[in-house]
Amino acid sequence: MPARSRFPGSGLTRMAPPGLGAGRMGVIRVAAAAARFGRDLEFDLRRIAKLIEDARRLGVSLLVLPDAALGGYLADLRHPDPEALPPALKPDDPLLMKVAEMAGEMVVCVGYCEADGEDRYNSAVCVSGDGVLGRHRKVHLPAGETAAYSAGDRFAAFDTPVGRLGMLIDYDKTFPESARSLALDGAEIVACLSAWPTSVTNRAPRMAQDRQARLFDLYDCARAAENQVVVVSSNQTGTMGGLRFLGQAKVVGPGGDILARTWSKAGLAVAELDVAAEIARARRVLRHLDERRPAAYRGLG
């Protein structure tokens, strides 16, 4: 079993794989955030600044913030009000550049609503103090989102100071092909940014019993294990309109084991690991990407 410890004064639980320590070459700390965000962009920016500050104090090198951290998510997934959509930001909006400035030496992934002419996208950007490292537009849109957003059309990994990384936005991770595409493109870390609510049609009395809570964890662990990569999964907390968000931010190792999590509360899930070493360990005998048989797969186009 992984050893558990607490970062002094943080109130945050870290689960480190056995045999890893802060003194080893290649060991970094990664964090997934669970937090509430809304339409007030100045409030959102202050909250992002606080999360970056907290992560920096804990020695975090990669921080994954939730989907729609700038501007909030939709308030209604059945019939989104076109007059109450999140504010749309251009790809070079000063607020995004401000997040990059705040990130400094850290790598930070953050979600927002992107404006591109008449189109709007549910998007994520990965930044550091050096600027934009990578971008992603959500490809898989659930029914309600199609009324508010256009769909992206690709999955691509990119190089960062913490390793090769790819991004998914909530519903993307429901589809195995999404994370597999990133892994085949060399991603060692998959950042999953979410604004994932409890069930809209059949909400359980307790969040832990909710169908969507079970699926959220299942997808995170499956995508990590089947691709033998690290998954850093953030999510919103609180409510927006009729939606109640799950939280459950977590870091999952390449064997599918949860290394750190926040459960339903706001906070940071922080894990310390050597990403390359953990992937090499997971792939020592079974190398899923190399052992695929594409000619035998049908209906993937």
UniProtKB/TrEMBL annotation:
Residues 28-275 form the CN hydrolase domain. Keywords: Hydrolase. One of its GO terms (molecular function) is amidase activity. CDD domains: nitrilase. The keyword Hydrolase applies. Pfam families: CN_hydrolase (PF00795). InterPro entries: Aliph_Amidase/BUP (IPR050345), C-N_Hydrolase (IPR003010), C-N_Hydrolase_sf (IPR036526). Its EC number is 3.5.1.4. It comes from the Bacteria. SUPFAM superfamilies: Carbon-nitrogen hydrolase. This is Aliphatic amidase amiE. It comes from Carbonactinospora thermoautotrophica.
